[in-house]
Amino acid sequence: MVVDSLRAEEAPARVVLQRGAWRLQRRIANIEGNAGEICGFANNIVPGLLQTAEYARAVFSDGGDISDQEVERAVRERVARSAVIEAGQADIVIVMTEGALRWHAGDPEVMVEQLERLARQSREGKVRIGVVPWNKPAKTFPLHGFSMYDRRAVVIGTRSATAFITDPRDVASYSRLFDDLVELASFGEAAAQVIDPIAADYQGLV
Questions:
Q1: Tens digits of pLDDT across the chain (206 residues)
Q2: Which of 64, 108, 111, 119 meets the CB 3.0–4.6 Å disulfide criterion with 195?
């Protein structure tokens, strides 16, 4: 199994960019395609697995560190990762904060398209999308987003590096954290009802 073969490592962002950001996206797609369970949390951005092409383009263009050609290749690889959702072979649960949806990426049209897609996916149920509303009291304070595969490996992306965590004790800590976040989130139609008004706010800016 691909997840079982992962080893703890840290890939500096500068190295990722030198090798091509698209390569990391392809590597993550390979992990996702072989995982039976995919869990993700984001507190400040729509998770990569759920991003539209325009949203992903805004993200990869941040800082101007890579060429337009490299941006487009990275966007294609990131969008291609959504195939794992359509395949329906993995149990996928993605949780994000309402704040992540209110971080205005690109322009209003980008956000309207992104949020309408999220609401649709939430209602379709091929992936469980959870949203933690801003008015939900929380006693859990995650400092960053993360992705977890089969509860055996965790991937964390920061401004400076991408870390692969496989120590069972550390993974167990993230597993417990994720379960706490799931308890805070609204799913299905309830999640869509959180997303819809935010999309309407962006629509008002178009």
A1: 555 555 556 655 554 555 668 898 999 999 999 999 999 999 999 999 999 999 999 999 987 678 899 999 999 999 999 999 999 999 999 999 999 999 999 999 999 999 999 999 999 999 999 999 999 999 999 999 999 999 999 999 887 788 999 999 999 999 999 999 999 999 999 999 999 999 999 999 98
A2: 119
d(CA 166, CA 152): 6
Give the max Cα distance, the chain: 48
**Dihedral-angle region of residue 196 (phi above 0 means left; psi in -120 to 50 means alpha; beta otherwise):** alpha
Domain 2-203 bears CATH identifier 3.30.870.10: yes
Sketch the domain layout of the chain as residue ranges: 2-203
Nearest one of 135, 136, 132 to 145, comparing CA atoms: 132
